[in-house]
Design brief:
Four copies of one chain form a homotetramer.
Chain A lengths: L4 H12 L9 H17 L6 H5 L3 H24 L4 H15 L3 H7 L1
Chain lengths: 110, 110, 110, 110
C-alpha cells in the first residue's frame, strides 16, 4: 500500500555522502526518531483537541516538516533493520482488525 | 517518493466502522503515536549498538510491527491535519541537504 | 528543595546486587526512562483534559506507579551523570522565572 | 525517601501568578514532560554508551537543566493528580524488588 523504495535509496545515499553510516545503528536511529516525534508533539502540548483540528497555515507547515522527519527516520531505520515496512503495515492492519472488530460485526455476533 | 493514498483511505474506513473518529484529534493521535514509538524503542534500550544491527528473527518481526504502528498513526494524523506527507518529505530532504552539505561539497568549498 | 540522597543510595544498591551496573549508561537509562514516560502517557492518550483531572482510584494508582518509574530512572541517571538534581532544579526555576515573568511584573513594566 | 512538598508549593505559586492553571491538565502536563524528556535524550542520541558516561562540563550542565525540567513537570503533574510521589516510589521499589530478585536470592533458591 505504501512504496518506500525510492525514499530508502535516497536516504542511503544521503547518509553515505556525509559519512553518517557509522552513526546509523538502529539504537541511535530510534533515539533520533523519538526526538523528532517529541518536536512534533511540542506543537500540540497546550492546544485543545479542537485547536489541534484547526491548525493555521504556519503551524500546519511546521507540523508537516516534523512529520517528515519522523517518516525519514522510520524509513532509514527499517532499511538498517532489513524490514519491509509495507509488508509490516499490511500484517499489522490485519492484526488490528482482528483485535478490534468493526461495530457491525460486534452487533451481528450478539 | 512515497504514496500513502491507499493507506490513508484504508485507515479512514478502519476508524469510521469503529466509530473512532471522535477520538482522532491530532492532539490525541500524536500522543498515541508517541506511545507506539516508545514500544519500538523498548526493544533497543539495553542493547549495544552492534546488537541493534544484528536482530534475531523474532525481535525483527516484533520491531517491524511496532514500526508499522508508528507509520499507521503518522499517515492517519497527516490525513486529519490535511498534510501531504510525500510533499513534506521532499521539502524536508531538500532543507536537510542545505543544512548538512555532503562531505565532497564541503571539501570543494575549502 | 528536594532531597534525593536516600533514593540514590537505595538505587545504587538495587543495581549492584542485580549486576545491572554494566547496563546503566546514561544513554541506556534515558531510553528506559523515555519508555516509562510513554507508559505514563498511554493512560491519557484518549482522555479529554477534564477526564485527566478526574481520575478514578484504579487509574490514579496505575499513574502513580508509572510516575514512580520515571522518578526512579531520573534519580538513577542523575547519579550516573554525577548531577545534583536539587541544585539543577533551583537553577532551572530561577531561569524559568526570568524567561516567563509573572503577570503582575509584566503589568508593572507597561 | 524524597520530599517534594516544598517544590510542589513553589510550582503551584509559579503557575498561579502566571495564570497557567487552565493549561495544567494532567493530559497537557504529560505531553509537556515528554517533550522535555526528548530534549534530554537528544544530548545522547549519537553518543556511544562510554561517551555518555564521560560528559564534558558544558554538556553535563545542559543535561542537568533538562533533567530539572522533567522533575519539575513530574512534581507538578503529581500535584494535579493528587498523587504522593514519595509513597508511590516506595511501593514501586518494593514491587520491582519482588519482580527482579537479587542475584544472591536467585542463587539461594536453586
Amino acid at each position: 500500500m505504501i512504496n518506500t523504495e525510492n525514499l530508502k535509496q535516497c536516504l542511503r545515499e544521503f547518509a553515505a555522502v556525509r559519512d553518517w553510516e557509522k552513526y546509523h545503528s538502529p539504537k541511535n536511529l530510534v533515539m533520533a526518531m523519538s526526538v523528532e516525534m517529541a518536536e512534533l508533539m511540542e506543537h500540540f502540548e497546550w492546544m485543545t483537541e479542537q485547536q489541534s483540528l484547526d491548525l493555521d497555515n504556519k503551524t500546519r507547515e511546521e507540523v508537516a516538516l516534523e512529520m517528515a522527519d519522523v517518516l525519514i527516520y522510520l524509513v532509514r531505520m527499517a532499511d538498517r533493520c532489513e524490514i519491509d515496512l509495507n509488508d509490516a503495515v499490511k500484517r499489522k492492519i490485519a492484526l488490528n482488525g482482528e483485535k478490534y472488530p468493526p461495530l457491525n460485526d460486534r452487533a451481528n455476533k450478539k
